[in-house]
Design brief:
The chain has 159 residues and is an alpha+beta fold. It is built from six helices and seven strands. The radius of gyration is 14 Å and the shape is globular.
């Protein structure tokens, strides 16, 4: 549930590439994340027809984003970040809800992601219905046919 503030979640636009990169850079602090994260990554997702990308804004500033990718019946949540001032207030759940609805509308039946086993992201994905897939300790998956049962409910309107 979003706590005490109004936000808007919308599709990523070309004007969002710089702000999304800067937000991600401020959040992704694990060495491999820093090596992989760059402005070209954000642009690449923006340009891909198979990408599912949303940003969340508050007062005309981006406070969160999700970058996903889909092929045939498989989807992948690649990057999720929320400004530290707005973490644990439902923003990431709202972004994930939007992405999962698009996956489901496009008949994507299996969603996967990677999350450090000891990190906040792992807890977040488990709370939203993902399960350890057993392929790797950090690989998690979700069947979209059941996603509405697991994901935290949001007070926001449609995506």
């Amino acid at each position: 549930m979003l706590k005490n503030f109004e936000i808007q979640t919308r599709n990523l636009s070309i004007d969002d590439i710089g702000p999304v990169y800067k937000l991600g850079y401020s959040i992704f602090d694990w060495p491999t994340e820093r090596v992989l994260w760059n402005e070209q990554i954000v642009r690449w997702y923006y340009e891909q027809s198979q990408a599912i990308c949303f940003v969340t804004e508050k007062d005309s500033g981006i406070i969160g984003f999700i970058l996903c990718f889909a092929t045939q019946s498989l989807g992948r949540v690649e990057w999720v970040a929320v400004d530290r001032m707005f973490q644990k207030q439902g923003v990431a759940t709202e972004l994930l809800r939007h992405a999962l609805l698009v996956f489901k509308l496009n008949k994507i039946t299996h969603i996967s992601t990677l999350a450090r086993e000891d990190g906040k992201a792992n807890t977040f994905f488990i709370q939203n219905g993902f399960q350890n897939s057993g392929l790797r300790k950090t690989e998690m998956s979700l069947n979209t046919q059941n996603f509405s049962k697991g994901i935290k409910q949001s007070s926001s309107a449609n995506p």
